[in-house]
Amino acid sequence: VLISPLLVGSGSFYTQSKMKLSCTTCSQSLEIPDELLGQTVECPVCKTKFTAGQSSTNSAYDVKPLMALCEKILLDEEVSVEELYELAEFLNANPEAGKHWPG
Q1: What region, left, alpha or beta, does residue 97 occupy, with left being phi > 0 and alpha being psi -120 to 50 degrees?
Q2: Average pLDDT for consecutive 10-residue bins of the chain (103 residues)?
């Protein structure tokens, strides 16, 4: 489900990468375009308004470590076993990261 923005700005269609997260009220799985992170959005299912990219406790999750790992893997011509283990260890140590999977 693609979430509808309350603050669209220029009104342009967003085609870049998206963050997967859940609605803070109904837990509906949503895809938020990166351009809307930090903006007020509305869940298309329950109509709850919340700030994209913030948890229900209002503490923003830092996606930079996960993005760095994914970028490192994507830039290689082939994925090594060590890179997959590193990613798996990171996700096991940071369960919140799974809610913010890039793309």
Answers
A1: alpha
A2: 44 59 81 83 88 58 72 77 81 72 57
Q: Can you say whether the dihedral through the CA atoms of 74, 101, 67, 82 is positive or negative? A: negative
Tokens encoding 14: 């967003």
User: How far, in Å, CA of 15 to CA of 50, rounded?
Assistant: 22
Strand 18-22, strand 29-33: pairing: antiparallel
Q: What are the residue boundaries of the structural domains of the chain, listed by start?
A: 4-51, 64-95
Contact 38, 27 (CB under 8 A): no
**How many CB atoms neighbour CB 63 within 10 A?**
19
CA angle 83, 85, 87 (to 5 degrees): 70
